[in-house]
Fold this protein.
Amino acid sequence: MASPHRPAASTAASAASAARRDGQGGAFAALYLEQYPRVLGYLRHRVGGLAEAEDLTSEVFRIAWERSQEVALSAPWLFVTAHNVWRNHVRREVRLGEVRTAIAGQLAVQVQSMAGGEAQEGRVIAAMDGLPPEHRDILMMRYWDDLNGAECAAILGCSVPAVWMRLNRARAAFRAKFEAMGREEQQ
C-alpha cells in the first residue's frame, strides 16, 4: 500500500519519467520519488519510529522545495539537510526532556505540600506524560515558563478568564492522574 508521502512502486517509475520532462517542478518531483526512500531510511535509523521519520523526511523535502530556486538540489544536499533536520529534532527532544524534568521539580514541590511527604519526581513526570497536550501545554506555560494569564492568553488565542479555566482543568487532571498513580503504587 502506498503511504501518503510516497506513491506505489508501480506508479513511481512512470511518475518519475513524466516529472523529468516537466522542468523545475518535474525535476523536484523526480528527486523526491528517487530519494524519498533513502532519506526516510536515513532518518528512520536515527529516530527509530516510522511516523517520526516520515515527519522529519517531510520537513527535509519542504526545505528542499523552498530552496529549489536558490540551490542545485542533489542527493548529497538532501542528506546534509536531513542530518541538520535530525540534529534540530534531537536538540528539541533534549530541551523537552529538560523542560519536563524542571516542571516535574516545580510540580513536585507543590505535590509535596499537598501530600505532606517527600516529592516523587518520577510520578510527576509520568503524570505529566499521561495528560492530554492541551493540559500539558498550559501547565508548562504557567509553571515552567512562568507566564502570566495575559501572556498565556496571547499564545493560546483566548481570553484571560479562559486561560484560568483551562489551567484549573489542567491542574485537576494532573491531580487526578497523580493521585491515581499513587493509589496504584500502594496496591
